[in-house]
Structures are given as C-alpha cells and as structure tokens.
C-alpha cells in the first residue's frame, strides 16, 4: 500500500536528488512558449542566432569521403615545402648570385629607342639633292654718293618726300562735329517713351493740386518775458573782534582701501524630492 504524502527522508532532504535545470516551476509546452522570448522581456531582437558547427559530408562537396590511397600517412604540404626550401638553400656555396649591369640602351640625341614610329626618312642625315644656287644680287646702297647739300634737290632720299600740309585752325572742333553727326545718323530713333499711362505716379495722388499754394504766414516775433526783479543782498556789517569766533572744520579721512564684500550667488530653484532607482528596485 503506497504511503500518502512524503516520507521523513524526503521531507528532510538527505537522500533526495537535487534538481538540474529547474527551480520547481511547472513545465510549459513549446507550443505555449513565446516566439521571441527576448523581445517579450524588453530586449532587442537579434537578426540571427549563433552559428552551429557541423562536420557533415555535405560540406566536402562529395557524396562520401574520398582518399587517394588506402592506408596513407598524414602529410603536411606546408612543412614539406619548408623542408625542400631548406635543403635547396644548403646547396648554395656562397652568397646569392647577383648579375652585373647589362649594356646601357641608347638614349638621347640621335637615338630613336623607345619611340613609337621610329626614324623619319625626311630627317635622315643623308645628303639631299640641292638646286642651282641663285645669287640674290647686291644689296642697295644705304649711303649713295652725294649730289649736293640736299636742300633744293628732289629725289635724293630713299622714300618720297613728305608733302607740306598745315593743320586747320579749328581741326579738333571740326572732327568732333563730324563724329557727333555720324553718331546721330547711326541712331534709329529717340528714347523710348510709353504713353499708355501718361501719369507721374502709378496711383492717383488725392492730395495733388495744380493751384499755387498761398504764401506762408509769418508769425509775429515773440517778445521775451521780462525778468523778475530781485533786489541785491544788503551790505554786510563789519563784525567786531571776538575770541574763538573762527571755527576750524575737521576734515574727514578719505579711506581709499575699502574691504570688498564677499560675492554670494543667488539661490537657485529648489529641487523636487526624487526617489532613487536602487530604492525602487529594492521595493519592487
């Protein structure tokens, strides 16, 4: 007959197995669980989950694992390449061979190395056929023989003589008049004036009148108000001699170095009573 309730050993907890993934809460089916538990707890939604490592055969792009030879040993290609390079370096008896500089290619004046089209036959150094040389003849004489002093003899200079022409008396005024007439002749017409609205202003001025204004009225000159009569002060009486009549006034000491007052800033607005966040978490 099964016992009702818990035994004493289970109640004390000496021989009871501890729980692993639960704290005693009830099991909730995965159909009843929220879709995104992190979003329901005021957390940011993650775009993707963590990557899961997999060593399936689909990752090798082959239906089954292919080996070159059955029972072959493991070989590291990087290590073999290093051993081969080390063995080749031991064969060197001295320093690395450095070849000497080769012949310098022609470059400079008279060289066509590096050009696109190469040499042109027109600019070759071969002797070309020349035509018969025709002498240009003697040069003209710049200092011919004199035929007199030059005064009164015609056609003794290289060029023709300059004709003598006297300037007009009003030559500048005549030239300006001709230029002004030419300018007026080139004008098409006078200044453009629009007569569709021959008024001085865009809007009619209600205060405008053609009647002449009357002469301005001159106000009569104002007479200055007479000054009030003030009698002069009476003459002072001659005072008799009296002992101790002259009183000496004591001058106040001028204090230039005064104590500066301490600056007290004005009090700001009073803060409102605010509860601490830690206290709210504790009370919650």
From TrEMBL:
InterPro entries: CFAP96. Transmembrane segments: none annotated. Signal peptide: none annotated. The keyword Cytoplasm applies. The keyword Signal does not apply. It is found in: Cytoplasm, Cytoskeleton, Microtubule organizing center, Centrosome. One of its GO terms (cellular component) is centrosome. It holds the Pfam family CFAP96-like. Residues 212-233 are annotated as: Disordered. It comes from the Eukaryota. Keywords: Cytoplasm, Cytoskeleton. PANTHER family: UPF0602 PROTEIN C4ORF47 (PTHR31144). Belongs to the CFAP96 family. This is Cilia-and flagella-associated protein 96. It comes from Centropus bengalensis. The lineage of its organism: Eukaryota, Metazoa, Chordata, Craniata, Vertebrata.
């Amino acid at each position: 007959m099964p016992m009702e309730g818990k035994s004493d050993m289970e109640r004390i907890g000496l021989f009871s197995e501890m729980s692993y993934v639960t704290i005693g809460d009830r099991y909730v089916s995965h159909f009843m669980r929220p879709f995104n538990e992190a979003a329901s707890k005021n957390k940011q939604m993650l775009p993707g989950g963590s990557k899961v490592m997999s060593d399936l055969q689909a990752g090798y792009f082959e239906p089954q694992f292919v080996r070159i030879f059955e029972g072959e040993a493991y070989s590291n290609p990087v290590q073999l390449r290093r051993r081969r390079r080390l063995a080749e370096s031991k064969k060197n008896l001295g320093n690395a061979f450095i070849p000497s500089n080769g012949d310098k290619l022609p470059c400079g004046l008279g060289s066509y190395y590096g050009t696109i089209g190469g040499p042109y036959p027109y600019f070759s150094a071969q002797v070309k056929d020349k035509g018969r040389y025709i002498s240009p003849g003697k040069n003209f004489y710049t200092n011919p023989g004199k035929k007199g002093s030059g005064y009164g003899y015609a056609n003794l200079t290289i060029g023709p003589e300059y004709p003598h022409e006297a300037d007009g008396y009003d030559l500048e005024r005549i030239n300006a008049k001709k230029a002004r007439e030419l300018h007026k002749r080139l004008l098409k017409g006078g200044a453009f004036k629009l007569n569709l609205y021959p008024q001085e202003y865009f809007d009619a001025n209600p205060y405008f009148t053609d009647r002449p204004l009357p002469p301005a009225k001159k106000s009569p000159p104002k007479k200055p108000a007479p000054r009030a009569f003030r009698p002069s002060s009476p003459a002072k009486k001659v005072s008799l001699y009296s002992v101790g009549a002259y009183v000496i006034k004591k001058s106040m000491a001028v204090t230039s170095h005064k104590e500066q007052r301490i600056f007290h800033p004005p009090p700001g607005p009073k803060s409102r009573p605010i509860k601490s966040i830690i206290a709210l978490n504790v009370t919650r």
